[in-house]
Amino acid sequence: MTVYMRDDAEFVRPNARKHPQRSSIQHWQLRDLIACPTNRQEFLYVNQNNVYQYNTELKQTTPVLKDLTFTPTSITTGQGFLAAGGQRSQLMVRQLSSNWCAHTTVGGSINNAMSISEHLGGTRLLICNNDKTIKVYSLPGMQRLQTITLPTAVNYAAVSPDGRKMVAVGDSPDVFLYEISASDTYTEVATLTGTSDAGFSCAWNQSSERFAVASQDGYVSVWDIRSTEKIAKLGAKQSPQNVKGACRSVKFSPTGSIDLLLYSEHMSYINVVDARSFNERQTIRVAPSTSDQHISGIAFSPCSKTIFVGMESNVWEFGVDTLSRRCFPEGSII
Length: 334
Description:
1% of the residues lie in helices and 50% in strands. It is mainly beta.
């Protein structure tokens, strides 16, 4: 499928707010260290061996995980939990509504990424490790339910919102698609080819019908579950040959009718794409015009009205033009 891209879209308002919170990066390729789990006024970020919550209205910083024995390489939130993973398979999980915490090591090596999802009324934590496995734990019980073995180091996995499918990527161009049964069985149903390099992030849209993969060689590939052919291949603003244009993180807007796809580059740029047609894009430079800066992570708020972009020196807050996204060509508003 050939998609002709227009780069003059304006999905995000230009007057971003700048928050002075410093978001640190522990691994040069792992850039998913910002989260917005509850509301658009608060975000979570990693700073050294801590995870903090920042309230943008009160301008108040609160430690959520403080003085960890490791520096997180990955964090994730979902179902009321926060999980942080480390270089030597360390894992810390906290329930955000209480003081409940669990600290363990899961074996293997670096925890590259994690994902929390719901499964038949229960909560699952998926841990992607460099030892070529995805380890599946129950929460809050912390019982290991499954160990899924892949042919490559696993960099990221995402479960669809309906809890029935999983996509995983790693240190190869392969994209692994799984079905999840009611009995917690993960069955591989397809192996697709992303681009020509490793995948470092993947995400599902809110209807569980489409998924996207961000790759080291500067592309984001998008599939519909009804076909093995890509429906879109989106490039970076910068050339991936010098690493700056490597696509590190990809997210779909989590609520219906907004339909945006967000992805970050290794340095300086984020891209916001129309996830209905994939033919309109807004590229935003989040670094000063005179110098490049690393991006530590990106996140939509649960309402899709806000985008947070983590940098090593600050966090940007962008407002999404949700009104225009709810207006369709026929003039209807939903």
